[in-house]
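A brief tutorial aside. Many learners find it easier to grasp structure tokens once they have seen a single protein encoded end to end. The record that follows does exactly this for Nicalin. Read the sequence first, then the structure, and try to relate runs of similar tokens to stretches of the chain.
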Amino acid sequence: MAMAARKPRNREMLFDSVIALVFILVACVDFCDGATVVDVYRLIQYDMSGVPFGSRLASLNHHAASLHFSPHADLSRTVLLIPLRELNMSFVQEYIVAGKPLGGLIFLLPQMFNFENKGGVGSNGDDESKELLKNVLAELEQILIHTSLPYPVYFAFEDDNIDAVLLDIKKNDASGQPATATTGGYKFVVSATEPKKVGSPPITNIQGWLAGLKTDGDSHQLPTIAIVASYDTFGAAPWEAIVMEVALWLFSK
């Protein structure tokens, strides 16, 4: 594969555990034949009353597989690349909730959920399909953020590059030749320092209303203005939280 021309975006976050990262997909047989770089978003990691939740690791360096893996495959050193469209909750219950060993997980989200791609390719799905995927994502999110996962978990958006990689991975899995150091295949690599605990910062949530006035004898009322400054970014992938969603929630009350 050819190296992607664009550079990964440099970003900083207050919490070390929720920074946006990139991963490299490497086609290799003893040496690297090529690589491509894709933006990914790490699953949240937090402790509540001393109890750990979320993904507990950030670094990743394992070969890739799809949901078409062999039933007898050892996945303890394998990263599963899973499109949200293909996810079934029986897999979630068997591997995530039951705590079966995995090398890592990368969930692929449709472009219709990418706010940066508004109006772009794949951003317009039919309402019924989008609503179904939103329900699946919401159910998955609740499971992920309330489970302690001893391996890295990331999210990425579908595009032509990652779709082509996934197709190759599926072909390898279907042929009964999963990726290994000797057979070759794709390897997912995330180079990141392990997250460290940070103190809770003092944060204030502010909201207010400037109510429009209506004068005597006037049938029209001036518009009401909402003033909002929100830190509501708690979710499966905090980096992808969009403040506009908070505004939509506020005006739907």
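Self-check: The first helix runs from residue 89 to 97. If you spotted this yourself, you are ready for the next section.
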